[in-house]
Structures are given as structure tokens and as C-alpha cells.
Amino acid sequence: MERPFALAVKCYGGFVLISDRPPGGVERTRLWPISTEAAAISHGLLPTAHEVGQAVISNHGATEPIDTIFVRASDQLSQHCAQHAVNQPVGVIFAGFDADRKQRLLGWYWNGNTFTTQDFSMGTFMQGVGNPIAQYLIAKLYSFDLSEELTSRLALYALVQSRTLLPYPIDEFAEIGWLRSSVGLELISEAYIRERLDLVQKKSEELRLRCQEFLAKEQP
Amino acid sequence: MTLALALRGADGLVLATDSRVTGGAQRSADVSQKFLQVNRDLGVMTYGLAVPGYRGMTRLVNEANSATQRRLAYFSEISQLAENIFRDEFQKWIGELTDEERGSVQSQAVGFILGGYDSFETSQFRVLHWTSPVFQREERNDVLAAQWHISGFLIKLLYYPEISVAQLKRLAVFCLTETSAAESTVGGPIQLATVTLAEGFKRIYDQEIQHLLIKNQNYHTHLRANLRELMLLSGL
Known about the structure:
The complex is a heterodimer of chains A (220) and B (236). Chain A has 220 residues and is an alpha+beta fold. In chain A, 38% of the residues lie in helices and 29% in strands.
């Protein structure tokens, strides 16, 4: 069961991490608190993405910055995949603050045989797989001063539209985490996510009506 | 890659592509001819691999309008000829490659869209679609091909079945502009044509496209403002 949707977005003062999942229960989470300065999100085939994520969260200091964690975690992940003969693609996106408190986005990816790492720190977001819908919507709506709340709405809208349009397996519910420096990853409640998903779906319909009305009124 | 659109309105079709070609020594150039007129009522478009795509289109136009044989008029015979030519040209092109190059050719690497008015057999506007390597004909209401994702989102927002061809031209230009702003493999001058009962296949030239681009500035502003208002700010 492939689960490619994983999105980490910088926001004002922190990050929003989001992955899709089936509604009800988080026994196979893909969001991972690591320290007060870092968190991760795994993507790829389940249960491998979940198991590999579990391998990430051990042996890290409670307040370690992302740059220290990433080097060690990449090694651990690669060793885990080699030892357990993981022959499927799986990846982990790390979000967090480095020793200078700069926001960093780093990626580790196992292609079933060997690993690569990526540094997306100059960008505003990082995804599990290329997702043109999320990329477009973030480019259209994102600004650095968005709060966690607004960034979560944007990410949920990207999730809903991606699920509607893209030929990827994407579940209808989501897990969301907010990462702040010195605090760590706060996992957002199911009730909050459900309320925001309902809002996004209602507003999507309103947007469609407004746009069509506008188009119809405009002279060709 | 490319973005190729065949959209159906209440009174006809709109066919549109960009003109960017990527790869090769030049890496990227905005000179690719991606659609041609076949006859009064019919146009053909291609996307993906430029060489078999262009060869397939030009051969179809030449053979459907042969000076030495009967000129083809029926949609069914033109579409059958098209299918045979597209498959044949792709196989010929594959035959010219080295084993290593052949191994790197992806499935659905080249596609063709035939769109127009079938005036003799069904009296309908029709859109047919083929992709490599099988070239199995697929009849569709509309086709969004290659880098279609952003257009898929925009069409879902903006399209309605009763839309006129005049509005649909603006929508096609809007899709191409929005995609080219986000996707580097789509860009360059927009190639646009309409097919209507009154005028048949009609190429839309640069001056009108420029006019549509300017008029569309309202769309861009409206979409961004409403997205921000509804998705980010409402309910705060």
C-alpha cells in the first residue's frame, strides 16, 4: 500500500507537517517527533514507511538540533534498510532548526537499493513525491508570514485537491503536526483536522461557484 | 513535456498547446509545432517526444490530402489512417534508436489528439486520443495531456458544460499561462485553434492570443484573491 503524500511546509516560526491516512486511529503514523528542534515525516509503502520511521526516533537527544540529528539518522535509516533487506522505495523528510536556529528541510530517500539525501532548506516546502497540484497551490497562496493555522489550511486544501485529481493512492483523512523551536512536534487533534477538512470542502465548492459566476459574467 | 488541451464547449472545440521542446543539444527551445490542420473541420495535436510526434502529424496531413489518391473526407477513415500512421511512425522511430536509448523510452512517451467536427457520419464534435506504445484509440469528451495536473485543477474550478467556445479560448489560454508559470517544461508562444460549425478549424493567431492574455489578467487576480479569501482567511 503506497502512501506517497507527505508535505512539510515552513511557516512563521516553525513548520507544518502533514500526511494522509485513513480516518480513525493512528496506529501506523507517519509523523515522528524527534527532539524539541526536529521532527520527521515518512513516505512510501506501508508498513515499511511506518517501520522505517520507528527506526528514526530512537537514540536522539531531547534537544538536539536537526543538523546533528540528520547525519546520524540518515546512517541509521540506511543501515536499517540494508539489514532488513528493504527493497521498496521509502523516504523520510526531516524538518527542524539547526544549531543557529535556522529553519531546515532535509530529505533521506531509499530507492530499494541505495540511499540519497537532499537539502531543501532554501525552499519553502518539501514533498514525498513530485506533486504539481500542491506545488501550484503553495506557489499561489504561500507567504512566509502564514501562521501554523493558515499553513495547515493550505496543506489540507492541497491534500484534498491532490486526492481528487492525481492518480496516487491518497487517503481521505490527515495527520498534522506543528513543529516549533524549543517545543517540538505537537500532534494536532483529530477533531481539529476533521473541522478544517469540512471547512476546506465547503469553501472549495464556494470557490468553484464564484469562479464560474465570474467567468460567465466576463465578456469573451 | 508539453501541455495539450482539447476542450469541448456548447458550440465547438478548442485545441491548445504550448510550443516548448526540451532535451537535445539546445536543452530547451520554444519553436515546436505541436498541431496542424488536417481538413476544414479537423485538427491534430501531439505531445511528448517531438520527432515521432511531428512525423506522425505531417504524414497524416499529407496522406489525408494526397494529390494522387482520393482525398479522405470521413472522420472514421481519417481516424483509422491516423492510428496506423501514429503507430507506424513511432515504431520506425524506435527502430532508429540504439538498444540503450530504446530502453530509456517510457510508456506513453508520445501522444496524439485528433479533434474536430464529424460532419458526414455522426454530426458531432469528436475528440480521439492515442498514446504510445499501443496506440489504442480512446474517444473522450476532452483531453488534458502531458503536464495536465494544474489544468485539471483549473478546469474543475472553471469549466461548465454550457461554456461557449469564445469563453473556452480564454480558459485554455489561462490554463497554459498558469501551468507555464509553475512548470518549466511548458512555455513559449501558445498555439490555439477552434473548431465550430460555422468556421470549421480556425487557427487563432498571435494578435488575438495577446489580447486574450491581457484580458485574462482579471482571471489571475480573481482566482488568487478568492483562493486566499476562502481557503486562508474565511472563518478567522
